[in-house]
Specification:
GO terms for molecular function: oxidoreductase activity, acting on the CH-OH group of donors, NAD or NADP as acceptor. The protein is α/β, with parallel strands linked by helices. The chain has a domain of 77 residues: NAD(P)-binding Rossmann-like Domain (Rossmann fold, 3-Layer(aba) Sandwich). The longest helix is centred in the first third of the chain and has 17 residues. The radius of gyration is 17 Å and the shape is globular. It starts with a helix and ends with a helix. The structure holds NADP nicotinamide-adenine-dinucleotide phosphate. The site of NADP nicotinamide-adenine-dinucleotide phosphate (NAP) has 18 residues, from helix 2.
Length: 114
C-alpha cells in the first residue's frame, strides 16, 4: 500500500516536470516505439510521433486510442529514405527516441529456413 502511494506520487511528480515538454518518437507505430509513446503520454509529455502514413488507420489507431493522445499526441509523416522528412517532427523537441527501423523480410517460409 505504502509502495503504491509512493509510486503514485512519483508519477505525479514526473507529470509536473514533463508538463509542456515535447518529445519526438520516430517509428511511433512500431512495437517498441508505441510503448515509448504510451509511457511518455502517461507521464504528461507532449509527443510528436512519426509514421510513414498518418492517414493509415492500421498504423495509427492504437496510438490515437492512448490516454492523453487527443490532447498531447501529434503524428507526422516521415520516411527514413526521404532526407529532411523528420525536421518538422523534431523541431522544438527536448529529445528524440529514434525507434524507426526498416525491417526487410526475405524469408518466405520460416519452416524451410530455420
Ligand atoms: N522488438 C524487440 O524486441 C527489439 C529488441 C531490441 C531491439 N529492437 C530494435 O528496436 C527497433 C524497433 O523495433 P520494433 O520491434 O519496435 O520494430 P517495428 O515494430 O517493426 O517498428 C519499426 C517501425 O519503423 C517504421 N519504419 C519502417 N521503415 C521505415 C522507414 N523507411 N521510414 C520511417 N519509418 C520506418 C515502421 O513504422 P511505419 O510503417 O508506420 O512507418 C515501424 O512501425 C529496431 O531497431 C529493433 O532492431 C527491438
Amino acid at each position: 500500500m505504502a509502495e503504491k502511494q509512493q509510486e503514485g506520487s512519483n508519477v505525479e511528480e514526473g507529470s509536473s516536470r514533463a508538463a509542456g515538454k515535447v518529445v519526438c518518437v520516430t517509428g511511433a507505430s512500431g512495437y517498441i516505439a508505441s510503448w515509448i509513446v504510451k509511457l511518455l503520454l502517461d507521464r504528461g509529455y507532449t509527443v510528436h510521433g512519426t509514421v510513414r502514413d498518418t492517414a493509415d488507420p492500421d498504423k495509427t489507431w492504437h496510438l490515437r486510442a492512448l490516454d492523453g493522445a487527443n490532447d498531447r499526441l501529434q503524428l507526422f509523416n516521415a520516411n527514413l529514405l526521404e532526407e529532411g522528412s523528420f525536421d518538422a517532427a523534431i523541431d522544438g523537441c527536448e529529445c528524440v527516441f529514434h525507434a524507426a527501423s526498416p525491417v526487410f523480410f526475405t524469408i518466405k517460409d520460416p519452416k524451410v529456413n530455420y
